[in-house]
Amino acid sequence: MALTTPTLHTPRLRLRPFTDAEAGPLFALHSNTLVMRYWDSPPWSERARAERFIAMCRKVADEGTGARLAIDRASDGAFIGWCHLTEWDSVHRSASLGYCLDDAVWGHGDATEAARAVLQWAFDTLDLNRVQAETDTRNVASARVLEKIGFVREGTLREECVVNGEVSDTWVFGLIRREWRPSTVPIPAR
Length: 190
Hints:
Layout: E1 8-9, E2 13-17, H1 23-30, H2 48-63, E3 67-73, E4 79-89, E5 94-101, H3 110-125, E6 130-136, H4 140-148, E7 152-163, E8 166-176
Parallel strand pairs: 5-6
Antiparallel strand pairs: 1-2, 2-3, 3-4, 4-5, 6-8, 7-8
Helix pairs in contact: 1-2
């Protein structure tokens, strides 16, 4: 079953399917050492990685295992990052949430707003019961975003990642349907 990647609107953002036009901005995002500091892979060094990422976005949707959405600012249409729902399991009604935003927009609520929109779509349209998210234990800002939208820290994966020779732990967060508190601002899907 193919999962149709939605277009979602929030008061300040538009989340939509990736196009080939995002290859440049996506490469800039993932080659930024500050943005990639807590990722389980080093910053990108070649633009072809962005093109493969966009191809993978289409593949994930075609396989019906999730949706990766580009995030634009509603005010000017500028690409500021992405949010995804992957590892979708329709039998167990579960999936995994992730996001990556440009450091220029950190601290302005964009990650929270984007993640809420994707979660609302996931719980309403996909009828999920559980969504999981993970973050490096040093990435306190990302942990705060997850907790702000209702996720509960469920455990720690000790020394799960080694990136550029640096070992790090990962926090696992979970959000179950009965604990989900949707935003009071409607997010229409298109």
